[in-house]
Write a structure and sequence with these properties.
single chain; alpha/beta; two-stranded antiparallel ribbon; 19 helices; 63% helix; elongated
């Protein structure tokens, strides 16, 4: 009679590794619960100690050497669990330790320590001698609680280092927040095992290229916000058209005027650029319209009105595709609105005379910022700088956008990306905020100046709304280096265009 174990399905053996494959078994040690002996206090010893303490700062490490480098002494002073023994290595030093790391410049001594460690069944790592190692210290990529170890089976530390640099840039810092939320979701998901699996599958589907997850409450509020936006847009358009024109006049102008479709194309192209880079709608639109010999006043009024609809559609799609950092959005929202209202009100009261004094300073600042962004695309990654005055940045951006005729995207997006934030989430968050900023600015202009040039506005709206889902889908899909090049180039173009206008004004 067969035993109970024979009745159960037996697991299949794992496939054997091909010849020459990496046969190392990766593990993550709780190093702070172990005792480590490090032999060697020079440059290599400092590197080994730094690597261990960077990942496990409270690890108990005993360093034995006849000489300690100044850098190692300073590092040891900052970690109370590190003990320095200035003496020659002795076999008795192995007692009481779990792991041995050897980093002297004496190869014979290194192999002798390895032999002693093996006799006492201790795991040993010998620097620059892969064949004498029981384990390797791999390159580490860390984003909060996410940690990735890279191994080349001891073949090429240089490749490990390059892969670490590449992954550090490619993986967004927001992964730490994702892990925290996943832990909360796992605890809150109820039901049986099958229900939990389905719920977690829905949450994580977006990571594998599927649709973005929305909770029932978020989906409900999204539908309400969408309906409110559509209703407001329809009401505004109907009121404008009914006040100025009849439906017959509107249809005749839209269906017969070639210029209308040119405005649609301009709006489409401008929104593609803005959705990809988080800026450039005003720049592309202004340059295109002015090349058609349209007066600057008509250009400014048309852009501010049409951008409200285009940025609303763009922000909606960025939110839908998961490109929005809600914390950043909340910080930028209120100051940006207040700055936009203030700028629009002052411009409507005092005209464009004083706005002309603001643009040269903004253009020079953005020219330098654009050069810096492009240089970052081809330089080694630096640690991210934390902006402490995001509210002030948003307020200045909103004010300049209304009072100076543009600058929200170039100023806010460029500054955040130059500080090292992930371009995809900066572009999405700034685009969502831009809708509320342009809405506040447009309402202020409506109340003080009225509206005109409806054909240009309607064409830009149609083109911008049509392009917004495509632009949001493409955001963040371009390699990070070329995102920096694109953003920097757009900022430089904007600043040079603004400086050209200033120079032409003074020459005339």
């Amino acid at each position: 009679m067969p035993s109970s174990n024979e009745l159960l399905p037996q697991p299949e053996p794992p496939p054997s590794a091909p010849n020459g494959a990496n046969r190392l078994f990766p593990v993550f040690l709780k190093l702070e619960q172990l005792h480590v002996l490090l032999v060697g206090g020079g440059v290599v010893g400092f590197e080994k100690l730094s690597a261990m303490l960077a990942n496990s700062p409270a690890t108990a490490v005993t360093v034995v050497a006849t000489y300690f480098s100044p850098e190692l002494k300073v590092l040891a002073e900052r970690h109370p669990a590190v003990q320095l023994r200035e003496q020659a290595y002795q076999t008795t030093d192995l007692v009481g330790h779990d792991i041995v790391v050897v980093a002297t410049n004496d190869k014979e001594l290194n192999l002798r320590i390895r032999t002693d460690a093996t006799r006492q069944r201790l795991l040993c790592n010998v620097a620059d001698t892969p064949e004498a190692c029981d384990f390797y210290l791999g390159s580490i990529v860390q984003k909060g609680d996410l940690k990735i170890a890279i191994s080349t089976n001891g073949k090429s530390p240089t490749i490990s280092k390059r892969l670490r640099e590449m992954l550090t840039i490619a993986l967004p810092n927001e992964l730490h927040d994702v892990l925290q939320r996943m832990s909360i979701i796992r605890e809150q998901v109820g039901g049986d095992f099958a229900h939990k699996v389905k719920s977690l599958n829905a949450v994580t589907a977006e990571l594998a290229g599927g649709p973005a997850y929305e909770s029932p409450a978020a989906a409900r509020w999204r539908r309400r916000a969408t309906a409110a936006l559509v209703a407001f847009a329809a009401m505004l358009v109907l009121n404008i058209l009914s006040f100025y024109f009849t439906w017959q006049q509107v249809w005749h102008a839209a269906s017969n005027a070639e210029m209308f479709w040119i405005f649609v194309a301009i709006g489409f192209g401008a929104q593609i650029v803005d959705g990809l880079l988080g800026m450039g709608y005003g720049v592309v639109t202004a340059i295109s319209l002015m090349s058609l010999n349209i007066t600057p006043a008509a250009v400014s009024a048309s852009i501010h009105t049409a951008e409200m609809f285009a940025s609303g559609a763009s922000g909606y799609h960025h939110y839908r595709f998961g490109n929005v950092n809600k914390r950043l959005f909340k910080v930028l929202l209120i100051p940006g609105i207040l700055g936009a209202v203030t700028g629009a009100f002052l411009l409507s009261k005092f005209g464009e005379t004083y706005a002309g004094y603001v643009k040269p300073f903004l253009a020079v600042y953005l020219l330098l910022l654009g050069i810096r962004i492009i240089s970052k695309a081809f330089s080694k990654p630096a640690p991210r700088k934390k902006h402490k005055k995001l509210g002030l940045l948003a307020a200045v951006g909103g004010f300049l956008d209304s009072f100076g005729g543009g600058g929200w995207g170039p100023l806010v997006t460029s500054t955040l990306i130059a500080g090292g934030r992930t371009p995809q989430y900066v572009i999405g968050s700034v685009s969502v905020t831009e809708f509320f900023v342009t809405f506040a600015s447009a309402v202020t202009f409506f109340a003080t100046l009225g509206i005109s040039h409806w054909q240009i506005i309607l064409g830009l709206i149609v083109g911008g709304v049509a392009a917004s889902p495509l632009a949001a889908r493409l955001a963040g899909r371009i390699p990070v280096r070329w995102m920096f090049v694109g953003v920097g180039s757009m900022v430089i173009i904007w600043s040079l265009w603004a400086l050209r206008k200033v120079v032409m004004t003074y020459l005339l």
